[in-house]
């Protein structure tokens, strides 16, 4: 096992659970593997595939995912192919022939292709030795990405009684887990659940920013990441288009991705992103499932996602290579309104409202955010992570009774016929169109909260919502209603503590100027084994070499070597093929193929 891992993939040791899973499958038993994105699920079936005699068939929902996996395996010297509608029938025919000749070790198929060709697989010589069902949550209608094509995969257990089946997913939801086993008819499968912690991802939430403020915050964020690739998720196509246009206007290499674009446009954008030609992709959730790009350095949520599962899977697309990566979630009252509407009309109202409630708890939390996430995934942790915004800036509280009374009184004086946004206008004394149209400037509390900045009011109102002093009436134009708890404060019977609003971007900008560090905190410099010794200029040279090779071979650069491998090379600066091959992530095939070129580059740099 270890030999195969080292020979093909260049890794010295298995990650937690990988070895157990490989051993289990080698005994011919079924398994369900739950691991967060980037934890290394693929190795769990790829290593057995290479050890078993026949061919391993991997069911995958997306052509782009198959393509990525096939490229990555082939680049390690493994014969992998894909059967799908993305290539011509002639090519598929050729692939089938190769399978029958026993050349193909790992075959990727779409579920519909597998079901249509069931006889081919049943009669295949050499036989199918293992089935892997990737993105297995697609089989469950409880999951967030149900695909009807997956529903018929239950035939596999019946039709291939002796062949082990492994289902893999990054979705941790308990209901979904059990449903996967039920749907696939795998009562004896063992569940392997790894930790869902992704310690290399930092977590940050910014509350109550409006569209303009969010854009400015994003520009500041990008200034700190001039060379890093990332994804920005928005809730609507319109928001995606607007944001991408805005970024392009500000000289950011950005592109839009959503279901309203043609298939060609979408695949061009995806390719450009994979090959580092586009820095930022603004996307609806449609983007990302087909992305294995290992050097995504940040994920930003322009709007709050509808559940923690969605959120976790999306941020999981950052930092697959294990290097430090940042995540940022924007969250405001508009998100709550819109998502509540979605949930109400989703046909699964109860469960979706509950999911949304849990997501809100995360966004509104004033305890360590990683603890909330891990707790959600059933891994209660007793330690603060030290790597989220709450840990960095523990909340400070003040007596906010008077402020809250002002806000509540404004709502009451407007007869509760007023939404979040207009309450803020009234408090700040702004003559917005609604204020003018409805003569709200005549209300007694108009301008009563002028001393507090608009942005902070937005935050305080979210806090009030969270504490249950007001409710949003979704069936009444999203107007605000003062609850009994709110009335107690209004009548002076109870005091309220509010959290001080933390103005992130200003402090950060100052920090950096003060310290004068290079604006690249993410380039692996803080990863322990390489700290202090990495030759940054050499890394840049190696990156260019990788780019050139990628272009020649029409492959995404990260398929050739991950960023992590380049950092290791720039740190250890090997001078012989043997040293080169010892670097983690460089297998035998890549060592032979690229060793000489990279060694030459390193040698000339070290000399020069
Ligand atoms: P997942 O499918 O769980 O999202 P992948 O299988 O794509 O994750 O693996 C994520 C990254 O971790 C890949 O770059 C992979 O090569 C790497 N990886 C997997 N297993 C190991 C290991 N045992 N040692 C080092 N790196 C590994
Ligand atoms: Zn924390």
Concise synopsis of the structure shown:
The protein is of the alpha/beta class and 608 residues long. The chain is built from 28 helices and 18 strands.
Describe the protein's architecture and organization.
The protein is α/β, with parallel strands linked by helices and 608 residues long. It has 4 domains: 2-193, 3-Layer(aba) Sandwich (Rossmann fold), CATH 3.40.50; 201-392, Rossmann fold; 397-499, Arc Repressor Mutant, subunit A; 536-607, DNA polymerase, domain 1 (Orthogonal Bundle). It is built from 28 helices and 18 strands. The strands form 4 sheets. Strands 3-4-2-5-6-1-7 form a 7-stranded parallel β-sheet, with helices on both faces. Helix 13 links the parallel strand 13 and strand 14. Helix 18 (401-413) crosses helix 22 (484-490), helix 24 (536-553) crosses helix 26 and helix 24 crosses helix 28 (588-607). The longest helix is centred in the last third of the chain and has 20 residues, at 588-607. The two termini are 41 Å apart. The model is unreliable at 506-531 (pLDDT under 50). Bound molecules: adenosine-5'-diphosphate (ADP) and zinc ion. The site of adenosine-5'-diphosphate has 17 residues, from helix 3. Residues 11, 14-15, 18, 35, 37-43, 292, 294, 320-321, 562 line the site of adenosine-5'-diphosphate (ADP).
């Amino acid at each position: 096992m270890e030999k195969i891992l080292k020979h093909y993939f260049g890794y010295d040791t298995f990650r937690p659970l990988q070895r157990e899973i490989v051993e289990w499958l080698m005994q011919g038993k079924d398994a369900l593997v739950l691991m967060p994105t980037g934890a290394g699920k693929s190795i769990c079936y790829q290593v057995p595939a290479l050890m078993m005699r026949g061919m391993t068939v991997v069911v995958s929902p997306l052509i782009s995912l198959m393509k990525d996996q096939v490229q990555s395996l082939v680049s390690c010297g493994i014969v992998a192919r894909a059967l799908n509608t993305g290539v011509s029938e002639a090519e598929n025919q050729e692939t089938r022939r190769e399978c029958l000749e026993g050349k193909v070790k790992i075959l990727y198929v779409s579920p519909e292709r597998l079901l249509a060709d069931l006889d081919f697989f049943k009669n295949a010589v050499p036989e199918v030795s293992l089935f892997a069902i990737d993105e297995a949550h697609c089989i469950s209608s409880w999951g967030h990405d149900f695909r009807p094509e997956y529903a018929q995969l239950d035939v596999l257990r019946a039709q291939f009684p002796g062949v082990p089946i492994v289902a893999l997913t990054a979705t941790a939801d308990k209901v979904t887990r059990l449903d996967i086993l039920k749907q696939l008819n795998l009562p004896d499968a063992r569940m392997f659940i790894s930790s869902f912690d992704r310690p290399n991802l930092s977590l940050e939430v910014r509350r109550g920013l409006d569209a303009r403020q969010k854009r400015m915050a994003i520009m500041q964020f990008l200034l700190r990441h001039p060379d890093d690739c990332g994804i920005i998720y928005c809730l609507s196509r319109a928001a995606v288009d607007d944001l991408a246009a805005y970024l392009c206007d500000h000289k950011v290499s950005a592109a839009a991705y959503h279901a309203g674009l043609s298939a060609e446009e979408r695949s061009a954008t995806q390719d450009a992103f994979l090959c580092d030609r586009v820095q930022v992709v603004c996307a609806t959730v449609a983007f990302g499932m087909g992305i294995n790009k290992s050097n995504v350095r940040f994920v930003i949520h322009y709007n709050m996602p509808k559940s923690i599962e969605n959120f976790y899977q999306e941020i999981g697309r950052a930092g697959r290579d294990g290097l430090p990566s940042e995540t940022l979630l924007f969250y405001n009252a508009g998100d709550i309104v819109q998502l509540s509407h979605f949930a109400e009309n989703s046909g699964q109202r109860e469960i979706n409202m509950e999911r949304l409630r849990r997501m809100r708890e995360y966004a509104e939390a004033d305890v360590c955010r990683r603890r909330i996430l891990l707790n959600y995934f059933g891994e209660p942790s007793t330690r603060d992570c030290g790597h989220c915004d709450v840990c960095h800036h523990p909340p400070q509280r003040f007596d906010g009774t008077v402020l809250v009374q002002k806000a509540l009184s404004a709502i009451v004086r407007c007869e509760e016929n007023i939404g979040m946004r207009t309450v803020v206008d009234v408090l700040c004394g702004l003559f917005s169109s609604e204020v003018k149209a409805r003569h709200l400037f005549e209300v007694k509390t108009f301008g009563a909260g002028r001393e507090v900045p608009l942005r902070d009011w937005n935050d305080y109102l979210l806090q009030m919502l969270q504490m249950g002093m007001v409710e949003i009436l979704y069936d009444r134009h999203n107007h605000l209603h003062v609850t009994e708890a709110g009335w107690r404060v209004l009548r002076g019977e109870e005091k309220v503590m509010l959290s001080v609003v933390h103005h992130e971007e200003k402090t950060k900008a100052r920090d950096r100027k003060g310290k004068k560090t290079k604006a690249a905190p993410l380039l692996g410099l803080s990863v322990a084994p390489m700290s202090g010794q990495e030759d940054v200029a050499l890394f840049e040279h190696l990156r260019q070499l990788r780019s050139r090779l990628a272009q020649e071979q029409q492959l995404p650069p990260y398929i050739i070597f991950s960023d992590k491998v380049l950092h290791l090379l720039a740190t250890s600066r090997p001078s012989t093929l043997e040293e080169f091959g010892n670097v983690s992530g460089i297998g035998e095939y890549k060592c032979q193929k690229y060793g000489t070129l990279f060694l030459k580059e390193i040698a000339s740099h070290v000399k020069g």
